[in-house]
Design a protein that fits this description.
Layout (H helix, E strand, L loop, with lengths): L1 H13 L7 E7 L2 E3 L2 E5 L3 E6 L32 E7 L4 E6 L11 E7 L1 H10 L13 E3 L8 E5 L5 E5 L5 E3 L6 E9 L2 E9 L1
Parallel strand pairs: 1-4, 3-7
Antiparallel strand pairs: 1-2, 4-5, 6-7, 8-11, 9-10, 9-12, 12-13
């Protein structure tokens, strides 16, 4: 059952446009990290539970009992460590959410996601149209044209497990140790983190 669930998640992510980004939010210790996130319309946010038992509630405010008033309401099931939830933000606007488990929201486990409309996305794309790595989907290797400007590369599975972490010493990164599937590549560059979906054939 768990295998089928991960396969379904992988298939869903593979249909996402390569140009759209995937951002990750970690849930643990009564916090979402980052608690505030700005993304583009049609981007995906994936929540990974790294400790405790949590959910992602963007429907009814746990503290007030009233609707958050989000452009779209959604709520995950609660679960333990591992993949928690993913959502593709096709409607722009500001989304507030919390963890409805126990007293988590009362203890400050809340988050906000600001989704920029496609017009703003297009303008930003014109300013920065280059991809961090290629090819994607990949087979055995991926290439980082500006590898000498990258501090560190981390690759995570869909369940949030870190499967690779390295500092690049050359443009090409070998993927032979990774199985076919969908991963998240977290790139640390100039003290800024970006996360991008990687599909390995």
């Amino acid at each position: 059952m768990k295998k089928n669930k991960l396969l379904f998640i992988g298939l869903m992510l593979s249909f996402c446009s390569v140009s759209a980004n995937i951002d990750t939010v970690n849930a643990s210790n009564f916090t979402y990290v980052p608690s505030a996130l700005t993304i583009n319309q049609n981007d995906t946010v994936v929540w990974i539970n790294i400790g405790g038992f949590h959910d992602v509630n963007a429907d009814i405010n746990t503290l007030t009992g009233s609707s958050f008033g989000n452009p779209v309401d959604f709520q995950s099931a609660s679960s333990g460590v591992g993949f928690l939830y993913q959502y593709i933000f096709t409607v722009s606007g500001t989304y507030n959410y919390d963890c409805s488990v126990g007293q988590h929201a009362a203890n400050g486990m809340v988050g906000t996601i600001n989704v920029l409309p496609l017009t703003a996305v297009a303008e930003a794309t014109q300013k920065n149209s280059s991809s961090s790595f290629y090819p994607n989907p990949a087979k055995n290797v991926i290439n980082f044209p500006d590898f000498n400007k990258i501090d560190q590369i981390s690759i995570f599975s869909l369940t949030g497990e870190k499967v690779m972490e390295t500092k690049l010493i050359k443009q090409q990164l070998n993927l032979n140790d990774l199985s076919s599937g969908v991963y998240f590549v977290k790139i640390s560059k100039n003290n800024k983190l970006t996360t991008t979906k990687l599909v390995i054939k």
